Amino acid sequence: MYTFLKKYWLHIVCVILLIIVGLFVYKWYNDTYVKKPVTYESQQEASTPEGVERAAKNAQVGIDKDQSTEIAHKIEYIYTNNVTPEYIVPTTAKDVDKTVKEETKKNKADFSIVTDPNNPDKEFDFSKYKENTPINLNQYNIHAYKKVIRSVSYAPTEKIVGASIQQKINDHGTYMGVGVDYDIDDKKVYGKIIVSW
Length: 197
What we know:
Elements: H1 2-34, E1 38-40, H2 43-46, H3 49-58, H4 65-80, E2 87-92, H5 96-106, E3 111-115, E4 134-142, E5 148-155, E6 160-168, E7 175-183, E8 188-196
Helix pairs in contact: 3-4
C-alpha cells in the first residue's frame, strides 16, 4: 500500500483537487443559474400555502405543508391587518431584480416573495414602468430553517450531560455539527459528530 501511495501520490492529489473544484463549480452554477431565490407573486397568491410552496420550489428550498401554511398565514396577517412589512423595497424599475436579490442575501433569507402593494391581485409587471420610475414593493424574506441549532441535554438514568452545536449545510433542513457528552459517574468526556434532518 505504501509503495502504491508513494508511486501515485500526485495522481491522487490531482483527483481530490478536481473533485473539490468540481463541487465548487457545481455550487456556483446552481446558485447563479438554477436557483431563483426571489419569486414575484400577487398578494393573494403569497397569502396561500400553494404560493409559498411555489416560491420555495423556485429557490430549491424544501419545506413541508405545515411550514408553508404557517408562512402564508403570517403574510396574510401582515397584509390584512395593514401591518407594515419588515422589508419595503424602494427602488427603480430597472433595478428591482438586483435590489430584491441583494436584500434577500443581506438578510440571509432562504427565499423571498415580492408583491406589489398597489396591485395586490396581480403579480408585479416590470413592463408597465419606465426604467427610472421609483417603485416600492413588499418583500417577505423567509427563513425556512434556523442557520444554527444549539442544544443541551441531560439523561438522568445514565447521568450524562451533553451539549452540541449544528450548522445548516443545505437548503433542505440538514444540519451537521459536533457535541460533547460528560458521564458524571465515570468522569469521562465523549465527543460526537451529529447529522440531523
